[in-house]
Inverse folding.
């Protein structure tokens, strides 16, 4: 990068907040380091940096905690990484209205700790919440097991401020829950992987913390039986916060034995939760439930954290991770078929799934050779598509991504998505190439 351009960036954010050369290596994407990293401290500095990048035709990659940077297609170009970790303030918390407005660089754990002082929480539980930032969670639409009851970020955001490719601030929504004015712009930016704008502020609706929060682990001999148990729970009067289906290898990696299991989250007032625990037992025993245990406090939280870690690269020599979206009724059968496909290619597969919404996370292990990994990912995509669902390569080495598309074929909707991209980012500088169809 020209020295004159670096000097301009230093004038915008201060010399200590511009990294270049070897300092940029921790911010590499798919093995490619940026030419510079900028750490703005205000929304105005973000806007100035993006404006300058646009004038120079320099690609901009927004960066939160870096916990999801392995998702998406390899970037077509990489130039400037915009790290938002200095934008980490709680701007406004209205406990009486159950709302909070925060900057995008704030980590979820820090936000939850502050909200907890007033007996409230933001009902999102993505993996690595100690490092995941609000902006990164929104950009990737990350969520965890509790999405079963509480939904995803799309359901919780009521206002959003984004810096567009031209450096102007775009605001959608507001600071009150009952806000119905105008287009619902926040939903456009959530899950866009930073390709439409740089998220700098968000307003969320909150919930009071539950009096009791339990995790029940019900083990079965077969995944098929656990799947029947999930259907029984979903068709009952229970109101679980999470219903996770876990296969044999995933269960072993969690240190919870073998076979298969349902991980059921139950929260609320004490009498309600006690009744739900007993009712869960009554439902599952006739379906082959082998044993169960209840976890609370740190043991509960550690198990949820371990479950989220299964999908992350580097866990137990993970070779690739694919996510499927299928009908909930099909999950157990497809998970069994996916494990069999991996075995045919000499690989192991640890599978977990949000049983109520039909999201399966399948992690491959057992080989550093791209060949069997590529073959298995192809088989898995075929399984999901034949079932009427979708598949996405959540993580894989670059050698695998070069042979297996990250995203399914987008079909006729790609024209609409490209039209939106061209309107909001005509120069194509925002995270180019990372999203569906090379957007």
């Amino acid at each position: 990068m020209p020295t004159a351009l670096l000097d301009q960036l230093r004038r915008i954010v201060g010399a200590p907040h511009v990294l270049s050369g070897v300092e940029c290596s921790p911010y590499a994407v798919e093995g490619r380091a940026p030419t510079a990293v900028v750490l703005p401290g205000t929304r105005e500095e973000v806007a100035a940096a993006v404006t300058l990048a646009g004038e120079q035709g320099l690609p901009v990659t927004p960066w939160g905690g870096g916990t999801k940077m392995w998702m998406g297609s390899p970037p077509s170009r990489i130039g400037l990484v915009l790290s938002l970790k200095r934008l980490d303030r709680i701007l406004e918390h209205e406990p009486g209205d159950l709302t909070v407005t925060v900057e995008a660089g704030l980590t979820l754990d820090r936000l939850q700790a502050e909200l907890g002082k007033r007996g409230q929480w933001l009902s999102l539980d993505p993996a690595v919440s100690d490092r995941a930032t609000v902006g990164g969670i929104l950009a990737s639409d990350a969520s965890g097991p509790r999405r079963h009851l509480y939904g995803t970020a799309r359901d919780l955001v009521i206002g959003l401020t984004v810096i567009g490719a031209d450096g102007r601030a775009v605001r959608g929504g507001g600071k009150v829950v009952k806000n119905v004015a105008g287009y619902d712009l926040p939903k456009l930016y959530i899950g866009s992987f930073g390709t439409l704008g740089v998220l700098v502020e968000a307003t969320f609706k909150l919930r009071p913390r539950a009096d009791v929060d339990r995790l029940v682990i019900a083990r079965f001999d077969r995944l098929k039986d656990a799947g029947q148990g999930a259907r029984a729970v979903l068709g009952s009067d229970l109101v679980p916060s999470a219903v996770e289906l876990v296969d044999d290898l995933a269960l072993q990696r969690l240190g919870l034995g073998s076979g298969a299991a349902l991980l059921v989250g139950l929260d609320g007032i004490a009498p309600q939760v006690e009744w739900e625990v007993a009712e869960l037992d009554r439902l599952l025993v006739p379906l082959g439930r082998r044993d169960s245990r209840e976890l609370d406090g740190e043991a509960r939280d550690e198990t949820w954290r371990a479950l989220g870690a299964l999908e992350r690269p580097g866990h137990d020599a993970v070779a690739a991770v694919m996510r499927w979206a299928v009908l909930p009724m099909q999950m157990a059968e497809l998970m069994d078929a996916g494990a069999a496909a991996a075995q045919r290619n000499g690989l192991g597969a640890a599978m977990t799934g949000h049983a109520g919404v039909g999201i399966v996370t399948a992690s491959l292990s057992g080989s550093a050779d791209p060949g069997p990994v590529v073959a298995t990912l192809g088989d898995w995509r075929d399984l999901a598509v034949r079932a009427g669902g979708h598949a996405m390569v959540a993580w894989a080495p670059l050698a695998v991504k070069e042979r297996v598309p990250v995203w399914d074929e987008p079909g006729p909707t790609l024209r609409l998505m490209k039209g939106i991209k061209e309107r909001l980012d005509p120069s194509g500088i925002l995270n180019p190439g990372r999203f569906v169809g090379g957007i």
User: Anything to note?
Assistant: The mean pLDDT is 94. The radius of gyration is 22 Å. The chain has four domains: 3-83, 90-208, 212-309, 318-401. The longest helix spans residues 370-386.
